[in-house]
Input
Amino acid sequence: MTKLITNIKQLVGVRQQNKLLRGKGLAELPSIENAYLIIEDGLIAEYGPMKNLESETSNAKHQTSNTIDATDQFILPCWCDSHTHLVFAASREEEFVDKIKGTGYAEIAAKGGGILNSAKRLNDISEAQLFDLSWKRLAEIARLGTGAVEIKSGYGLTVEGELKMLRVIKKLKEKSALSIKSTFLGAHNYPIEYREDHKGYIDLIVNEMLPVIAVEKLADYIDVFCENGFFSPAEAEIICRAGMSYGLKPKLHVNQLNSIGGVQIGIELNAVSLDHLEVLTDDDIKLVSSSWSGVCTLLPTAAFFLGVPFQPAKKLIEAGCAIALATDYNPGSSPSGNMSLVIAMSCIGMKMLPEESINAATNNGAWAIELQHEVGSITVGKKANLIFTQPIPSLAYLPYSFGTNLIDRVMINGEFVS
Ligand code: NIG
Ligand code: FE
Output
């Protein structure tokens, strides 16, 4: 089935080659004004300036196609949200109110709230219920322009709970039109009964969870929350190496609240991405920019929601790093899967240029989940995952008018999302 989109005011993110964008390269966002795009069987087949199409109007392919007029609209590749925890059982707005009253994130966690609260709720519901809740969130983010997403486990913290989460993610992968990657985050927190027995819980991860995950092919990546009060760098290393022995590559939560050596371990293990990075020393920045080829995934809505300083995006870009932006969609630190808001916040709070942000949320997001051959840019052969904007005067208008939904329609695999 062929579809032709005509009169696109600006076709954004057109790339002939796949390239992870680093440093200054992040500001280059190639676009075509007054463009057309042809979709065949859900894939981008051809694109260019309208004048090229007009000169070929006799081409039978164009005459028989389904035509969509995009006058006044910008078209962008769909967002690639490379870090989420969108499979969860319940919201946590009571803790939100506690935080407003002055209780800190770590304090809430120490009292059995936070991740442990989510784990309790998740272990209490069925796989089918969990699937339904997650399916709705996936539909919600698709309407907000996300076409590819990474989803983590980590709210089970028991063998059954973690496997339940991962089986839900596997089912989402099978049923959804979105491209999905799955990450095992059994090391998200120590369950209460293992607070004083870290080795016991790590043994459970290594000997009880990972072998089943491998047999059922439930995960693509392994993650650890490397932080004071959670998992130390040494513990993260043991868990990652065990995951790597089953072919799971590391993508890690590091330096969210403290710089305790998470970056160093991540680089030593050649992580695909290091995520959060709110707290970075000059040495950490030197390391991520010079001795590693992975992606720094920044999560500005999590920093915003927790009221901690934003990630030092400018310093990372100046140092030549590759940056991706993601929502961290989860009930505790970022209860929003809205990538447009992430982009606005990265511009407003982290001083990223609109072009840098859009590249980080599309092209580099795809690299952060190793889907760069499928999604992330307007490239022939990639999926026709497209955001059609409302009429807007310029690209910078998107983050500028933060909080306004400027997405008119979203297309995934060449079909409009309803
Ligand atoms: O990425 N920091 C670790 N995990 C999540 C928050 C989890 C939660 O509070 O439920 C995050 O911010
Ligand atoms: Fe996270």
